[in-house]
Write a structure and sequence with these properties.
With 143 residues, the chain is mainly β. It is built from two helices and twelve strands, in the order βαβαββββββββββ.
Length: 143
């Protein structure tokens, strides 16, 4: 991963390709920075974010809700610096909390859950409930 050579959970990521973006799920509390646009020509698209990825389901949203209501999502930040994420494909019609991020969350004990200056262009997002291009559910985060 370009931005995560030797990462530990407290390190921040420089997002340069789809693999780096995917690595956020292992570092939800970090403060990550998009360094360029991501699209269908960027490394990792076919495996992670395209129509054939994950058995035709496309991108796996970052963040989940484990029963009973144990939300795990972005508690850190993604600063898009004005760059765009293009051509994102998600087809999870039987799933909830669907988007680039399934869950963005901030709580009383931490400041976080921030997604800023990030554009989405030409996205396909299909889900059951709590569905959005950027975020499925925002729990007191900042978008």
């Amino acid at each position: 991963m370009a931005g995560c050579d030797g990462c530990t959970p407290s390190q921040n990521l420089e997002i340069r390709d789809w693999y780096d973006l995917d690595a956020i799920r292992d570092n939800l509390g970090g403060h990550h920075t998009l360094m360029n646009d991501l699209d269908s020509t960027t490394a990792g698209y076919t495996e992670l974010a395209g129509p054939t990825a994950n058995g035709g389901k496309g991108w796996q949203p970052i963040g989940t809700c484990l029963p009973p209501s144990d939300f795990r999502g972005l508690t850190g930040a993604l600063d898009g610096q004005g760059y765009e994420i293009r051509d994102l494909f998600i087809n999870r019609s039987d799933e909830d909390l669907v988007g680039l991020f399934g869950v963005v969350i901030a709580g009383a004990f931490h400041v976080g859950g921030v997604v800023k200056e990030t554009g989405l262009v030409n996205v396909t997002v299909i889900g059951n409930s709590l569905v959005g291009g950027l975020v499925g559910i925002n729990l007191a985060g900042t978008l």
